[in-house]
Amino acid sequence: MENQFNEPQAVLSPLNGQAIEGQYIVVLKNGNTSISSNSTSQNFTTSKVAAARMRDNAIRTSGVKQQDVEQLFEGVVNGFAARLSQEQLASLRQNPEVAYIEQDRIISLGNNGKGSGKTSPSETTTKGGGKKGTLPQPEPTEPTPTEPTPTEPTPTEPTPTEPTPTEPAPAYTSVTPLAGEIVPWNVERVGYGDGTGKTVWIIDSGVDTDHPDLNVDLERSFSLIYGNPSVEDGFGHGTKVAGIIAAKNNGTGMLGVASNATVVALRVFDDAGGGTVSRAISAVNHVINNAKPGDVVNMSLGSGISSTLDNAVTTAAAKGILFSVAAGNSAVDCSGSSPARVNVQGVFTVSAMDNYNRLWDYSNFGLGVDFSAPGVNVTTTNKGGGLTTGPSGTSFAAPHVAGILLLRGEVLSAGVITGDKDTTPDPIASLK
User: Fold this and answer.
1) Domains of the chain as residue ranges with CATH
2) Could you tell me the Gene Ontology terms of the biological process aspect for this record (predicted)?
3) pTM reported for the whole predicted model
4) 392, 395, 413, 430: which one is catalytic?
């Protein structure tokens, strides 16, 4: 079971997706455009000043006290999360500037699910384009002997030759592990390269900013926990995720899939591993406001259904920002989880497999899963320095795909898993 190891992992929390009593997510309209909770894109165009004025007005007129406000949403999602009385809730529902209201929910690490549509596993082909072993071969025959007819040789022009085709340059920069580097089985399985200059945004429990194997950008890192500005990883989960993606090629520790990539920590889980959907929404807003196309976001988290979180992820993906999302650790179809159920281009959902290419027993599944990656007994970086071996969960499968996306902007496949619980076995994520 996932909790067999004495360290934080992708915990199977019974509270995951549970509504937080009295706490709500209030989403405001975009000018004259009403946004329903079923919409797939917010398309906000309201200026920052006007959006702030709208938020402040909604908070003030409904009588919400500042100490009851949990989050302010600034960006593609405009609104706030707060603890509300029934009277305040009724007042906000009658406010013409309010688009819709959702109840806030608990999120746990690694419980999510859907992606951008399945990619068929690659097939080995012959140079002629047919599948290997499927081309019919002619029966060998002996030629009939004939006497040659003497002829004068006919002068011929030399036959022009086509230049020998060359393989295209790889879409990523390869790397040779330095002496002293460990290449864990999980990283070896999907492949690795040089991620120098690439940026991954890790929405998680923070990161150990002093870890010698991680390149953390403190200026862009940010805590979404109100009253706690630190991005230091008190729980230990985010540091493990970061190592799989980006551990340095520095002659010590381990090699990440996209070694030397820059890590930006967006902290939404506290020291006990607790988080909320409203924090995750704020984190995605932060990504939209600060990331650039080609950047990658890892979300090893999830909850019940939240249209607001789904819409935010969808909008970010439309801007060219790539997402790797954990499928979840409840052994159920991932279609009932956010942001796992988001099924658009640029969002990849990842199930967990073991080193025998079998689906992990507790991994979520479903036709919304895009790829499977190593997620059982992996080796990665640990809070406080050094490495750890043993973590399991889709939380640790998703960062393998995040690393691949950093290196080449797409994910290839190398076979399929066994033991899948839906009708289509998940392709195994691969760099090449």
Assistant:
1) 18-33+42-106 (3.30.70.80), 185-430 (3.40.50.200)
2) proteolysis
3) 0.82
4) 395
